[in-house]
Specification:
With 309 residues, the protein is α/β, with parallel strands linked by helices. The protein folds into 2 domains: 122 residues, Periplasmic binding protein-like II (D-Maltodextrin-Binding Protein, domain 2); 134 residues, 3-Layer(aba) Sandwich (D-Maltodextrin-Binding Protein, domain 2). The protein is globular. Helices cover 39% and strands 23% of the residues.
């Protein structure tokens, strides 16, 4: 006997299921406001330490819980597009195709610039090398022997550091010879600290804010000054040089919010871009998008103070 399907009944079930999921989404929007609720944020692992500080202070001020997932840039983008989280913090904006992906879901990404970071070259502290020319790094990436470069060590093949150096070198993938990669920045710092002659490529935030386990390794490495593709000066990756835009490997940081409603993504972005958040970035060794102001209080001497003089 053939089964007969009641078409109107199926349509009704579809409508009910659709309304159920939409109501769940609306319910989440009601439970979460810009300063209350729970949200997940995807973060480029290169600057995980400073974002951890931002989350800690934000949660201490508001009735909010932010779960941070730190991954390589490539993994963050993939998870972001797959709707693992609607909030991401990256060292680049979205491409046109990525923006169109969200527009197709009727979501217009809100992008907030929060400061400047930098890619740094590091070497073992016992190494005599304190300078490196960016052109030599590019030549080495393209298979030519570079002066004072025995090998390059990256944090992750999908990291933002790899993307930046690959773009400068005109490459899509990392070379196979004398170029190595790990999974995290901490592993790169440890490797360079234990192996003289190798140059590590990492986000500078880890030099200023190492983990408790990584502090001993950071003390055994040093940042190398870099000569850009223009000019002859070798510039150290310091906060001042990042601010003055003289360091050749500086990069902007962005919070990208694709929640589609007024949730914690909007509140957290406003917090980080505000006075307290910008002070946290300044203290971290990076450079904020907006320099926090300083208040000077002038007090007039009281009559009693004048009489006691």
């Amino acid at each position: 006997m053939k089964k007969r399907f009641n078409i109107p009944a199926l349509i009704m079930v579809t409508i009910v299921v659709s309304l159920f999921f939409n109501s769940c989404k609306d319910e989440k929007a009601k439970e979460e406001t810009i300063l209350k609720g729970t949200a997940t944020i995807l973060v480029d692992e290169s600057f995980k330490p400073v974002i951890e500080d931002q989350i800690t202070i934000f949660e201490s001020k508001y009735d909010a819980k932010i779960n941070m997932i730190a991954k390589s840039e490539g993994e963050v983008i993939q998870a972001f597009l797959n709707d693992t989280s609607a909030i991401a913090i990256l060292s680049r904006t979205l491409t046109e195709n990525e923006i169109n992906n969200f527009k197709a879901r009727k979501i217009l990404p809100k992008i907030t610039k929060i400061g400047k970071d930098a890619v740094a070259f590091i070497a073992n502290r016992s190494s005599n090398d304190t300078l490196v020319a960016l052109q030599d790094v590019i030549s080495f990436m393209n298979g030519k022997k570079g002066r004072n470069i025995k090998g390059l060590v990256f944090d992750n093949p999908n990291s933002s550091s790899v993307r930046m150096i690959n773009e400068l070198s005109g490459l899509k993938d990392l070379p196979q010879e004398n170029v190595f990669s790990f999974k995290t920045t901490e592993e790169v710092v440890k490797f360079v600290a234990e192996n003289d002659g190798m140059i590590g490529v990492i986000g500078i935030n880890w030099l200023y804010q190492p983990t408790a386990a990584g502090k001993d390794y950071v003390n055994k490495i040093k940042a190398i000054s870099v000569k850009g593709l223009k000019g002859d000066a070798y510039i150290a990756p310091t906060q001042n040089n990042i601010a003055e835009e003289t360091y050749p490997l500086a990069r902007d940081l962005y919070i990208i919010n694709c929640q589609g409603f007024s949730g914690l993504g909007m509140g957290f972005a406003s917090f980080v871009a505000g006075d307290v958040g910008q002070r946290i970035i300044l203290k971290s060794g990076l450079y904020p998008e907006r320099t926090p102001g300083r208040k000077l209080i002038f007090k007039n001497k009281s009559q009693n103070d004048k009489e006691n003089e």
